Amino acid sequence: MAVVSDHGVVAAGMTAWLEDGPGSGATTVVAEATTVAQLLSARPEGPPVDVVLLDLLLADRSHPADNVAALVATGVGVLVFSLDGDLRRVTEAVRAGAAGHLPPGVGPAVVREAVTAVAAGGHVLDDELRRAVAELAGRRPDLSPRQQDVLVGYTSSATKLPTVARGLDMRPETLKTHLRRIKEKYAAVGRPAHTRLDLYRRAREDGYLDPSA
Description:
By secondary structure, the protein is an alpha/beta fold. 50% of the residues lie in helices and 9% in strands. The longest helix has 17 residues, at 172-188.
């Protein structure tokens, strides 16, 4: 497995817990990185990894859900943790494909059990987190088919707005109107999306885009 964290003490502690003590013989940490990009750039030359233990609070300001999606796209199981335990951040990570979450303060035995479960294809989610994920899923705005097309067309690439409009067979002003209404609908359910990147995340969370895209 691999550990991604830029908190050196945390990474060292997790590695020690996973490789030492009762029940740790089957777990080997083959890579440590301070960012997901660093880990992915090193993977082709390194040993195989089946689980990544991911810190959700990284200094590179990368978005947790983006990091999870990038890792899941490689076929690994992702187990997330954060020192602050922010439920919203964790929920978005799970929606992006994380298989489990380690709450703050858990001990080595719990960490090892969670890694083993995720490596076997299981999930490690407590009741509170399951409820939060279900609640987020229930707050999906009711977008018309045309608005769904606009959301996908606008967020699936970095193409400029006029080009997106031509691809959707509409005028740029019409596209802007659709985008404004989409943003209003997301704001109405408590999930604001002010920027193109925000809309991309909402589209991925709600299943309009492949989570690994």
